[in-house]
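Q: Give me a protein?
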Amino acid sequence: MLLAICACGSVSRPGSPAGAQPTASGIQPAASSTAPQLAVSPAGGPLSEADLEYRLIDSLGAPVYCDRSLYPVARSEDPIDAAAAVAALRSQNPAEFDAIVRHEHLNADSLSTADDLRILGQASELAAVPLTPRGTRYDFGYEVVGPPPAEVTGTIDRKGVINLVSRTAAPHRQCPICLAQWARIASPAGDLPVATVHPGALVWTLDARGRRVAVPVLLVGHTPTPAGHQVVHLVLADGRSVDVSPGHPLADGRTVGDLAPGDRADGSVVVSAARRSYDGAATWDLLPAGPTHVYWADGVLLESTLAGTISSSAA
């Protein structure tokens, strides 16, 4: 299953770098001497939209996206739930199901749990390649993983012939692992609700020598959350607590989801680190300037997940 790379969904920053000029017109030759295996329809029939999306992926590159079953907060993929989701896809969108099974060389009559998860991952990948009908063709535009990462635009006709209009350099991004929307961020102006923090606002962080300093926020990101997600309700012995994704890193590099009662965390002892349902509309993260990219959320020192979205020189 491909993991996509994106910065907490919608990202706000103080300014955006000038976009690169288009560097390609027409399909680029493959880097290796072996041509990609393009998606085909059964018995040479017409290509479905899913077949066309695969044709783009196989020719131009896999899309950048964040699989909502994994991000922005963790959700266990129960085999029964996965099988039910695949059955729903098969019933509601048989053309896409068939295209995935053909492309991944699966046996539709004997699917394992691993096959079900692969199908769901592929469905998420295809959804990241939107097609807009334009007569006998479709417009497309999506971000390619790379290397190097790029934004590609163009058209593809119903026979799968691609006309690549532009290929523009795109920044490296990463998937969000974020805070509950009610988290409060420590700042010189007091604790701020994370949803109200904006680029340029001052927050507390640690400098390279471990001193508490105020720095501006470089980025703020948030991602809508689908149903069924969970966060860790981390409770420390000194009374601090925070709701955060299991994959969110602490300042020492460990993830919150790896903590157990009795572990040390941010100068205290973990009382509990239980997962619970998250009913917030979105999760949030922010990127403080400086070398450490750490900040305090509800009094707990965490590391930002957004550091990979900008060059180190900007920090």
